[in-house]
Amino acid sequence: MFFYKKNKLRKFDKTTNKLRIITLVFFLIFVSWPLTVLAHQPRIVESEKIIVNKPEISKAYYGNLSGKPHTYIISANSAINLYVNILLPFNEGPEKNVLVNIFKNDHFLVSLSPNKEDWKEFFEPFGQSMYWQGPEFKIRADAGKYKILVQSREKKIRYVLAIGEIESFKGIESLKAILVIPKLKRNFFKESAFSFIFSPLGWGYILLLKILALLLGWVISKVLKVSGIKIQKEYFKRLARHIMVWSGIFWIGLLYWAVTTSWHPIIILMSGLALFIALVSWCELKVSKQNKT
What percent of the chain has a predicted confidence (pLDDT) above 90? Predict the structure, then answer.
């Protein structure tokens, strides 16, 4: 009896270790997923003064002006490639007034003051959003302190300030972008977060979490089996059809809730586990029918 329990504990530990390894592998795959084609790292502006770190790395700052200007500070210890571009969300319209003044060491450098005809339609495929793209400014800038002032005569206006051209989207920045983009679609672009599902970034994220959820469901079933927790098979067989239907409803419902709101990974994982239960129930029904025939 002692050796039987010890053997079960060893099996349980092996299964637990497999779960840890699988989870780690999928996390590493996800955070190292190459997203260099995504133009800018998204940043939500939450104050009137913004410190720009690593100004050559491409970032997009999503801000709301309400009378007071926003000031971006760049401190360059050596020469940098300075790139600045002003954009507006498409539903703002190209007739809106927005002004970008760039200073070096408090000396005026250049002004981006687009007229209506200067705005061009621009579609960003990874966020699945439309913009009005304004003028760009690019220069090989010497070391010094740079200030970018964004202001408008409008009482309220949303804008996007792109800084930097080097596309760098490795590691945890991938996850940050996936969690930020749905917020931007709801609160900034005033549109449904659902359209993000058509982005390679969006559906790839769902696919990875679904595969992880299916593996997690399989490991949990093995853990229950090894640990001696038994599910009454006869009871399960009688309710298999109902379990399959309700699990399918939960799968679709939770997934829809996730992709239309926050895209939170826990909700998507729960949806994946519901899919796993639905598949197990379907397999049980299929086996039962074969046994009857």
Answer: 49
Amino acid sitting at position 150: V
pTM score, two decimals? Answer: 0.77
**Tokens 């709801």 sit on residue:** 186
Asked if 62 contacts 81 with a C-beta cutoff of 8 angstroms, the reply is no
Please count the residues of the chain. Answer: 293
Q: For the beta carbon of residue 278, count every other beta carbon within 10 angstroms.
A: 20
How far is it, in rounded angstroms, from Cα 289 to Cα 293?
6
pLDDT tens-digit readout, 101-123: 999 998 999 999 888 889 999 99
Spatial distance between the Cα atoms of 250 and 186, rounded to a whole number of angstroms: 24
Closest CA to 167 of 61, 35, 76, 73: 35
Domains and CATH numbers, the chain: 2-30+201-292 (no CATH), 41-169 (2.60.120.380)
pLDDT digit string, tens, across residues 154-169 = 889 999 999 999 887 6
Nearest-10 crossing angle of helices 2-31, 200-226: 180
Judge contact between 244 and 287, C-beta under 8 A: no
The answer to whether the CB of 290 falls within 8 A of the CB of 235 is no
DSSP 76: E
- What letter represents residue 230's amino acid? K
φ, ψ at 110 (rounded to 5°): -160, 160
Burial of 141 (0-12, 13-18, 19+ CB in 10 A): buried
